[in-house]
User: Fold this.
Amino acid sequence: MSPFVQIFSNKYFVVPLLTGFLAQTFKFFLYWIIRKKADFRWFFYTGGMPSAHSASVMALSTIVGKNRGFDSAIFGVTLYFSLIVMYDAAGLRRAAGMQARVINRMVEELKIAHRIKEERLREFLGHTPFEVFVGAILGILLGVLLG
Assistant:
């Protein structure tokens, strides 16, 4: 069996990947409905509802726990790193997005006075705790169903 086939038949890889894709697809349609226009960049953006990172890592943790045991060392490691990813999404990346919003306002004011041509920074970087929670629940559900 080729390495490519082995990788894409590995449920520990495929299910989290599919879960992340489904979360991004949900995000795309949610923002299409809200803003009444399709923006295909939402398939690749970070931030927003639900957290695809949280969904993916919790799907992985769920599959590992389900198949290797919730008392196994690999489940403990996987869950620990999943919690770090989710904390980072709601903490550090969210703070970076808030800082980008402030910097964008400052740059807009400077553009008027000094005619600078800086591009806007991306403000949707992280997640609210609720977006992380919804992503985690989605990941657990898909991990149970597909793992």
Q: What stands out?
A: Residues 107 and 129 are 29 Å apart (CA to CA). The chain has one domain: 3-91+126-146.
